């Protein structure tokens, strides 16, 4: 995947999550999420290698955006997640501050600790601010980290001409 496409998709993901728009099945296709995760991982690994190999000016290295605890989620949004029965998501998902009821289309089963839920559509778990402690505090930090990462990425100069 071209670097411009990977950065564009990363920007779109952060913009999408931070813009507080409801997620629909058309907006969040499981294959796109998996592709985006792989693209971001490959791109950030490549950039890290370039940065380590090249110390001087003119380096192709781009400083990695620190996602903080938001990196623990395949989908992290402030408003909602909708899905269709045949979707498959790899990684944890969460909404916050919206309630867990804003994750629609999933068949959730609460864990015995009630700190998260499981679904056959998720290879990971689902967290909501209505889950038991410490989940609400963890989600507040993750959303704050997501917003900080978005602000950081959006304020960087585009010296390479990527969108």
Keyword list:
163 residues; alpha/beta; three-stranded parallel beta sheet; two-stranded parallel sheet
If you had to describe this structure to a student in words, what would you say it looks like?
- By secondary structure, the protein is an alpha/beta fold.
- The chain contains 3 helices and 9 strands; from the N terminus they run H-H-E-E-E-E-E-E-E-E-E-H.
- It has helices at 3-18, 30-53, 135-154, and strands spanning 75-77, 81-82, 89-90, 93-95, 103-104, 109-110, 117-118, 122-123, 126-127.
- Strands 1-4-9 form a 3-stranded parallel sheet. A two-stranded parallel ribbon has the order 2-5.
- The longest helix has 24 residues, at 30-53.
- It is globular and about 50 Å long.
- The two termini are 14 Å apart.
Provide a quick synopsis of the model:
By secondary structure, the protein is α/β, with parallel strands linked by helices.
Averaged pLDDT? 77
Strand order across the largest sheet: 1-4-9
Structural class: alpha/beta
The helix tally amounts to 3
Using the CA coordinates, give the radius of gyration. 17 Å
Largest sheet: 3 strands, parallel
**Element order, helices and strands?**
HHEEEEEEEEEH
Number of strands: 9
Proportion of residues in extended strands: 5-15%
Assign a percent range to the helix content: 25-40%
Stretches where pLDDT is under 50 for at least 5 consecutive residues are 1-31
Distance between the termini: 14 Å
Query: Shape from CA axes?
Result: globular
What's the topology here?
Blueprint: H1 3-18, H2 30-53, E1 75-77, E2 81-82, E3 89-90, E4 93-95, E5 103-104, E6 109-110, E7 117-118, E8 122-123, E9 126-127, H3 135-154
Parallel strand pairs: 1-4, 2-5, 3-8, 4-9
Antiparallel strand pairs: 6-7
């Amino acid at each position: 995947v071209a670097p411009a496409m990977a950065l564009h998709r990363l920007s779109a993901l952060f913009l999408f999550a931070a813009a507080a728009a409801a997620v629909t099945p058309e907006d969040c296709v499981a294959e796109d999420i998996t592709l985006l995760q792989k693209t971001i991982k490959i791109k950030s690994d490549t950039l890290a290698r370039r940065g380590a190999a090249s110390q001087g000016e003119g380096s192709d290295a781009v400083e990695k955006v620190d996602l903080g605890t938001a990196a623990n989620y395949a989908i992290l949004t402030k408003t909602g997640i909708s899905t269709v029965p045949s979707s498959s998501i790899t990684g944890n998902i969460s909404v916050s501050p919206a309630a867990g009821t804003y994750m629609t289309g999933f068949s959730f089963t609460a864990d015995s600790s009630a700190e998260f839920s499981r679904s056959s559509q998720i290879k990971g778990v689902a967290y909501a601010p209505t889950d038991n402690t410490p989940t609400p505090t963890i989600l507040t930090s993750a959303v704050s980290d997501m917003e900080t990462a978005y602000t950081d990425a959006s304020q960087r100069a585009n010296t390479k001409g990527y969108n």
